[in-house]
Amino acid sequence: MSVSPADPALLKAQYRAFAGQLPLMYLVVAANTWLLAWTHFGHAPAWLTLGVPALLTGVCLARCVQWWRGRREEPDASAAHRALVRAGRMAWPVALAFSLWPLLLFPYGDAFLRSHVAFCMATTAAVSQLYLMHVRPAMLTIALVFNGGFILFFAATGEPTFVAMAVSVALMTFVLVTTLLRQYRRFTDLVGSRLRAERLGAENLRLANLDSLTRLPNRRAFFGALVQACERADARGTRLAVGIIDLDGFKPINDLYGHAAGDRLLKQVGQRLSLMASGRIHLARLGGDEFAMIAEDLGGDEAYVAFARSLCEQLRAPFQLEDLSLQVTATIGLVLYPDLACHAEDLYERADYALYHGKRLRRGGVSLFSADHQRRIQHEAAIEQALRSADLEAQLSVVFQPIMCMASGQALAFEALARWHHPQLGQVSPADFIPVAERAGLVHRLTRVLLRKALAEAARWPEPVGLSFNLSIHDLGSSEELERVLETIRHSGVHPARIDLEITETAVFSDMAQLQRAAGQLRGLGCGVSLDDFGTGFSSLSQLLALPLTKIKIDRRFVAGIQDKPTSIKIVRSLLALSRDMELGCVIEGVEAHEELAVLRELGGNLMQGYLFARPMSAEAVARWLARSVPETCQG
User: Residue 65's domain spans which residues?
Assistant: First the structure.
């Protein structure tokens, strides 16, 4: 006979069900009241046929209006509890009023009017109990007061018909109350089941938006939060920043120490990032070693960049993994909203673009997306579209730069370099179109044309002269593409021993297992395999030992101005010693000044390449060059 406050979800469900049914109950009760009053006009006093019904109807209307105004409100559990308790208490005086009034009419009129009184009371009680089933105290009050009064009154008349009616109503009340209590239990069970389902759904949703390893929000949650952050920024007129965070040097750690160590490292990275999260800073893991940041309303550009730098500093500190102390850095691509991005998708793409350039130019720092990046995106988009529709066979050409042997003073080999002349774009630099082709997955189409043309020229050279050709990771990443490369070499007429295929150091960390298989097949055919740009990435001796290399190429950044850079001298001396110890050839790239040449020769360098010796030249110029002298052999 009381409303328990212990279950908030049940209270709200009871309130919603009761609020929707109460006006209909009062409508039926008021209609029954006036029908009964109408049949008694002229038989009972006016205060009974007009005054009391008007008063009871006023009560019904007042309650209807009260509940109708709150029909769309969603009260909290406390408000719902108060409303239901009040409804239970109101049931007592309302039940008494609506049961006493018909009984006061009973002495007036004939047997038909008395039967109408009994019928009206029985139907009103039944309807009221049905509509009040969700408020158990009110329903039981109606059964006790209304039906109980009916049974006692009509049983006391001694009239067999009315006594039979009393017994019938007693049975009906028992059956109806039992049924309604059973339905109420089912209602409470249904509410409980729905609540459990909602909680389970909420937990599943939480897990679906959570990265299981780092316990940070995942990629799905990040994009949801990004859309909401943009909406908040638009509504408030504020700014925000999106950063894509990539760990530098994670893949070598994963390869060297195993995936378990890599997972522990990522978990600790997630813990550090979690400490920096706040109401205005949202951090997530996108996948692999890539994380993301949303920073809201921090102030000017400098504040966002400063926070991103502090995040880099946090991740630069060593990570302790049991007996290992590991260190990585983080590169962040940062973009500000709404300065150079209109919506969430643009933000992510521009932050990713800024990250791409940061990884190429300034690892371990913050790369802020700028108007220049925007122009480059448009330029690269035009290049990509042009590449997709280009007649590559007609538009691509190859030039060659000699690799010189200092011992003989002659060219040991020529490196093939790509050139592209487009009818509308004109001469496009390979520094522009090669990265675009790699990102768009088109580079293998270029490789087929360029390799075929380079080999066709090399077939005309004297036997000792070799060809060096650059391959992308996309050319080695699948068995199908690698087989096309091998077939092109087999049908070229150039002996494989004269061909040196270069792979970049960054390609080593894309898929080491596949790269090992590809390099093994190239060596099996008889080709040389060189590691280009050596020293610029994260190579370790384990990678050098794992690959069947024949040469390494020292990147030009260690050569430029080497005569004035003691650190560069030490690096080049170490790399030359390493190549000798591992019985690998060593080509020094980017030699442009006599002062650089003098230092490199003093360090023991023998194979060199650069503008000091010759700029890239056409096939005809190569023929004239070779006509002057043909080298025999040279050791790196």
Answer: 8-201
